[in-house]
Fold this sequence. Notes:
Layout: E1 3-7, E2 15-22, E3 28-29, E4 35-39, E5 46-56, E6 61-70, E7 99-101, E8 104-106
Antiparallel strand pairs: 1-4, 2-3, 2-5, 5-6, 7-8
Amino acid sequence: MVAITGSSSDSLSGVESVQVSVDAGSPTPATGTTSWSFTTMSLADGSHTLTVNVMDRAGNIGSTSVAVTVDTTPPQLTLSSDVTAEATGPSGVLVIYTVTAAGSMFASEQL
């Protein structure tokens, strides 16, 4: 799911409605008009386009689009095998290590 929020205004006739479409699909009403929000249904991984249409009370329509990328695939993580640590007191043991996960760096992890 992708959540978006926005604001719209029309100083002459006022904002009538805000609708959002995903990947050129059917428009769905957003919640609110001058301050609005919208949450998509579950989207497949990959690129998607969200288009927001705002209509004023005179029937004029303003539109804008935003591209989003959905990535629900967790990073792959490989740790050194056979890490052994012995607690020297009642509070356990702290093991600090650095790993690379799909290009991201983690500074440390407490086990």
